Amino acid sequence: AQTVTQSQPEMSVQEAETVTLSCTYDTSENNYYLFWYKQPPSRQMILVIRQEAYKQQNATENRFSVNFQKAAKSFSLKISDSQLGDTAMYFCAFMPGTNFGNEKLTFGTGTRLTIIP
Amino acid sequence: DAGVTQSPTHLIKTRGQQVTLRCSPKSGHDTVSWYQQALGQGPQFIFQYYEEEERQRGNFPDRFSGHQFPNYSSELNVNALLLGDSALYLCASSLSDRGETQYFGPGTRLLVL
Question: Which region holds residue B80: left if phi is over 0, alpha if psi is between -120 and 50, else beta?
Fold first, then answer.
């Protein structure tokens, strides 16, 4: 069974600064996918970024980028030039990629990020 | 292009009752997954439906059941409600392939009294 660990329950940063959220996972699979989702107070879970484990290049989406370290089983999210709208719960999630029909997400416990004006 | 929709948004039930939650997937998606998110926790996988069949199930009792219709929409049914079933129930839709991103609906907040 896979596990996902987010060791930072809460973080806060000044607007326009850079912040990094940590995530580690445990799996015996070689093929898998990793995701970061944000959940603002409105509750809607929104995809931030995804990473395929077979790709060495770290994924980027505008101000969001990841540092994927496969050997260390680490998948951190960096938010650059943070904005007030980035305030939310952030969840790291793992999806197996070996077998068709096994596409469930396993989530961490989340990091509550507050952007301070 | 409509995203994933869920109904109702809020629901209050008493212990022992039964509840049905509904989900319509994003246009073009054929797979629906359901998650339970207790307060302050990450979502927990309940089950996934594809081609009107339950394809995979998480560690939830048989009181939790579901259905998928030919138009890919889905229902989650919970029987004999317990206080511990109070949670946010999230529906996610995707295409049926390895690694496909799951897109979430706004959720249904269930309170069991």
Answer: left
